[in-house]
Target: ABC transporter ATP-binding protein
Amino acid sequence: MIAHTPDTSRTGITVRGLRHAFNGHTVLDGVDLDVPAGTVLALLGPSGCGKSTLLKALAGLLRPQHGDIQFDGATVCDARLHEPPERRGLGMVFQDYALWPHMSVAQNVSFPLEMRGVARKARPAMVQDALALVGLHEHAARRPSELSGGQQQRVALARAIVARPRVLLFDEPLSNLDRTLRESLCIEIGALLRRLGTTAVYVTHDHEEAHALAHTIARMSHGRIADLVATNKDTA
Model:
């Protein structure tokens, strides 16, 4: 399944004093968090606990009202600075796949490379490598509508890793799949993340999913980190 390992750099994440409110309702209430380079952190909790808002803040899709975020010691967000998503070196995977229906699988995966100005001649090999990593190299010419839900999510994963991001962010990527498929794809994603060694933050409300994937689980409640639990996953 795996052709070779992309050369991703390892990036640590530091969050300090993150606060945010919508219409007077506090959704992030002084979040402090450290994600060591090369580790997978799961943000676990029920709907409304703040986990997706925290992920959006990390991604640059939302500017928190207070606090700061650093990637490898370099500030990407504080009171004076807000780096946009495209300048943070991120890969993102969403629960709804977010694939372009009129594009082929290869074109969907290639899109981030085009946006980052990667040379046209270099793109096909990078796309094939990413598709090989998720076991879809033989489906490059297909359209998303010709694939199963699990295959579409693999395309989304390939698109997230193709540009060799510093950090991978996942927003409940398996929630639209049936239980059996969620379990098998969860195992595959976990194995891939460990092989890549990329720092990742994974939002979920599923305890088994969090334990299967993450090195550390941050349980969120009412906009705060209620506790941190280390799993027995290796970071090497």
Notes: The chain has a mean pLDDT of 91.
